[in-house]
Structures are given as C-alpha cells and as structure tokens.
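Batch job 17 of 40 flagged for manual review because the log was empty.
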Amino acid sequence: MKNEKKEEKEKKQNIIKIKNIIMKVLNENGFKDAKIILFGSRAKGDFKTLSDWDFLIVLKKELSMQEKRDISHFIRKALADIYIPSDVIVRSEDEVERRKNVIGSVIRSAIKTGIVI
C-alpha cells in the first residue's frame, strides 16, 4: 500500500514537472493557450520503467508542418534534458476536430484514452 501511494505521488510530481517544461517551451514560442494530453501507456497506467511519454499538444493556431516539427523537437529536447523519453504530436484544434473520429488515428486514440494535464 505504501509503495502504491509513493508511486502515485511520484507520478503526479513527474506530470507537474513535465507540464511546466512543456508550457515553458510553448510560452517561449508564443503559444499561451494549449491543451496538453498525455496518452498511451503512461496515461493508461500499464507502462514499463523504460516506456516513453506520449503527448498530443493542441494549439488554437494552425501551423505549417515545419512549425509543428520544430515545436515537437523543442519539447522532446527539453524533456530529454531531464531524462524523460517522449513522443510529441503537435496539432491545431481544427486538425484534432477533423481527425478525432477517424478510426485508427493516433489523434482519436489520444482523445478517447488520454488525460488532459
């Protein structure tokens, strides 16, 4: 029981730290209003020690493919600096709206099973 409480506390602390890092990167790049969704094994709770963290970043603004890649890279690098392996998908609200019901879409999976942090 103590180990479960300790693990849950560590998970919450990690999520807060990760959210702060992601928001810092987004703010530095001019994005104030973003939704961060944790999905995959970390959200479901069936992760292994070496599992990565999967994030869908939803921005109000439409971005070019290069801008999305850049933001994703900046976030992955910032998280790697504190030894957090991650996959980061950056999409606009419109893109998410269009893809949220497409069967087999990562966006659909993130929306259905993810946790907004």
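Reviewer: the log was empty due to a logging misconfiguration, but the result itself is present. The chain is about 55% helix and 20% strand. Unflagging and moving on to job 18.
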